[in-house]
Amino acid sequence: MNPIVLLCIIIAYFALLLWVAYRTGKGSNNESFFIGNRKSNWMLVAFGMIGTSLSGVTFVSVPGAVGTDKFHYLQITIGYLIGYVIIAYVLLPLYYRLKLTSIYGYLQERMGQISYKSGAWIFIVSRLVGATARLYLVVNILQLAILDSLGVPFIVTTLVILAMIILYTYEGGVKTIVWTDTLQTTCMLLGLIICSAYMLNHLNLGFFESLNEMNKLGYTEVFNTDANSKAFFFKQILAGAFITITMTGIDQEMMQKSLSVTKLKDSQKNMVVLGIILVGVISLFLFMGGLLHLYGTTEHVASLGDQLFPDIALNHMPAFISIIFIVALISALFPSADGAMTALTSSLCIDVFGLKEKNISQKEQEKFRKRVHLIVAFSFLIMVVIFKIINDNSMIGLILKLAGFTYGPLLGLFAFGIFTKFKVQDKLVPYVCIAAPLISFFIDKYQENMFGDFKIGLELLIINGLLTFFGLWLIRKK
């Protein structure tokens, strides 16, 4: 596929995003940027959040991992659904009752100012790491597929994509993102369906026939029953539930979209519907992963993991499928990156710099927020370059592992606040939030010496949260 043609398609797609941003961003202010003036339609939010929840990592990594991990990712997805139900009926009523703009304001009311700042900083670090890892994966694919052949350096590609995101989120923030995410989720899901339909036709297989072929190769195994394995179904379902609670329920990026919905009941419907749809969508991604491995065998494709889908779509399929793949890929890229950039800007402005308490005019507040937005974009650039140096072959595994270390303290903080009535020695909270991930790291590193054949996987997040909870209990006020 001609790289110039693919580049023109990306530019045209971005022009459409800018038009949507222009139409939806009119008359925006800080309240629009942070929580969309609490006037977002819950159905739009639910549909758009699919794109944010999945990202380019799911689009590329989940299908690519089927060859080694089979359909085991569906175990985690079942846990996701349980997590979304808990968010809807435990966390959302709390956030709406307190009328929060930043969800970490709860920690301020419950534990104190330093706990509040600690929670905000944990989110900032966690989301920065997770969002830039997702961004890197897609930027790297675009670089290898299109821009290397045009002589464009990786750093320039990253700068241009970040500039695109800044342009359409600079004014409207959440108010704009609710609409652009809906557009992008639509393109991503259409790409998934069209690519799958083409492969079925090319392989001359029906839906059930293809499942039968996948089953012969062992790809369709959903539940792992080996209790010692990292992929044991109980561990994966439990980890999936807690990953959702932390990476959605106590994550400012995901919650600020839910809080932009006017009524609590509608926001709860948004969350439950999102969970149900995600189970179906990820099942489709796994099905497509099985098809990719069948297709790759017939076409003698050597690529594995994250490189499998891009290689097949761009080098072993017709031009129109290559175009659909690129559109779907960038549609998967933008929802996770734009939402994270907006959420990090919101958290820094409100939680760290106390923008709402500053005695300055609305115009000055907007100028301050825009400067912070640019600083966040620069930090994205630095992190993407770091991930380029790391260059891990399966980014979804890396992201979920990093989440176990970074989100654990947030899980412990919120659990302690909700399920106990103790006050804590506020000034000691940061030490607990640093100690828990460090202990978790050593448990993970030396788990073979400690537990023998028993393997700790994604449930490391729960261990980290429990360590934080225990640490807060130790520093409770008598």
From TrEMBL:
<protein>
    <submittedName>
        <fullName>Sodium:solute symporter</fullName>
    </submittedName>
</protein>
<dbReference type="Pfam" id="PF00474">
    <property type="entry name" value="SSF"/>
</dbReference>
<keyword id="KW-1133">Transmembrane helix</keyword>
<feature type="transmembrane region" description="Helical">
    <location>
        <begin position="6"/>
        <end position="22"/>
    </location>
</feature>
<feature type="transmembrane region" description="Helical">
    <location>
        <begin position="372"/>
        <end position="390"/>
    </location>
</feature>
<feature type="transmembrane region" description="Helical">
    <location>
        <begin position="456"/>
        <end position="475"/>
    </location>
</feature>
<feature type="transmembrane region" description="Helical">
    <location>
        <begin position="151"/>
        <end position="170"/>
    </location>
</feature>
<feature type="transmembrane region" description="Helical">
    <location>
        <begin position="119"/>
        <end position="139"/>
    </location>
</feature>
<keyword id="KW-0813">Transport</keyword>
<feature type="transmembrane region" description="Helical">
    <location>
        <begin position="78"/>
        <end position="98"/>
    </location>
</feature>
<keyword id="KW-0406">Ion transport</keyword>
<feature type="transmembrane region" description="Helical">
    <location>
        <begin position="271"/>
        <end position="296"/>
    </location>
</feature>
<feature type="transmembrane region" description="Helical">
    <location>
        <begin position="232"/>
        <end position="250"/>
    </location>
</feature>
<feature type="transmembrane region" description="Helical">
    <location>
        <begin position="428"/>
        <end position="444"/>
    </location>
</feature>
<dbReference type="InterPro" id="IPR038377">
    <property type="entry name" value="Na/Glc_symporter_sf"/>
</dbReference>
<dbReference type="InterPro" id="IPR001734">
    <property type="entry name" value="Na/solute_symporter"/>
</dbReference>
<comment type="similarity">
    <text>Belongs to the sodium:solute symporter (SSF) (TC 2.A.21) family.</text>
</comment>
<keyword id="KW-0915">Sodium</keyword>
<feature type="transmembrane region" description="Helical">
    <location>
        <begin position="396"/>
        <end position="416"/>
    </location>
</feature>
<feature type="transmembrane region" description="Helical">
    <location>
        <begin position="316"/>
        <end position="334"/>
    </location>
</feature>
<feature type="transmembrane region" description="Helical">
    <location>
        <begin position="182"/>
        <end position="200"/>
    </location>
</feature>
<keyword id="KW-1003">Cell membrane</keyword>
<feature type="transmembrane region" description="Helical">
    <location>
        <begin position="42"/>
        <end position="66"/>
    </location>
</feature>
<keyword id="KW-0812">Transmembrane</keyword>
<dbReference type="InterPro" id="IPR051163">
    <property type="entry name" value="Sodium:Solute_Symporter_SSF"/>
</dbReference>
<keyword id="KW-0739">Sodium transport</keyword>
<keyword id="KW-0472">Membrane</keyword>
